[in-house]
Amino acid sequence: MSDPLPVLPELARRVGVAADHGGLELKDHLVGKLRTAGCEVVDFGNCELNPDDDYPDFIVPLARAVVRKEVDRGVAICGSGVGACVVANKVAGVRACLIHETFSAHQGVEDDDMNMICLGGRVLGHALAWELVETFLAARFSGAERHLRRLAKIATLENRGI
């Protein structure tokens, strides 16, 4: 018998997810795990396998929901995770990273207030992907002055544009 799934903290109770065809299978797996862990899941699609779909069509609405605080955090998945990360970070206020190991999954939140995790549906197995999402959702931003200072510099850069 396996260990019961931990209940995730209150901060990350409402989780947005999105994936293109390259991440659909992993997204569906993670949605089940999130619901079992007690999270409310908002699914931004895709909900059917369409090899011609485009990841921005699903990741951008998720990113906007994260910025508007309609979801606590976001999980974005494409084949490698790279495209999802690139497009998510085009939305001002998003701090998304492609994550493949647990240290960055929590450190990115603790130090950089990462609000979206990006995963590769074709490069991560189910167990590791769940461990990364669980670690990401359980982490808390430290609020340390040096981290706030750095985030202010990022916000200034976002507001200036090119």
Structure overview:
This protein is of the alpha/beta class. The chain has one domain: Ribose 5-phosphate Isomerase B, Chain: A, CATH 3.40.1400. 44% of the residues lie in helices and 15% in strands. The protein is built from 6 helices and 5 strands; from the N terminus they run βαβαβαβαβαα. The chain has helices at residues 24-36, 56-67, 82-88, 102-112, 126-138, 145-160, and strands at 14-19, 40-43, 73-78, 96-98, 116-120. It has a 5-stranded parallel sheet, with helices on both faces. α4 links the parallel β4 and β5. α2 packs across α3 (82-88) and α4 packs parallel to α5. It is globular, with a radius of gyration of 15 Å. 38% of the residues are buried.
Q: Strand share of the residues?
A: 5-15%
Q: Could you state the CATH homologous superfamily?
A: Sugar-phosphate isomerase, RpiB/LacA/LacB
According to CATH, what is the topology? Ribose 5-phosphate Isomerase B, Chain: A
Number of domains: 1
Q: Keyphrases for this structure?
A:
162 residues; alpha/beta; Ribose 5-phosphate Isomerase B, Chain: A; five-stranded parallel β-sheet; 6 helices; 5 strands
Condensed summary:
This protein is α/β, with parallel strands linked by helices.
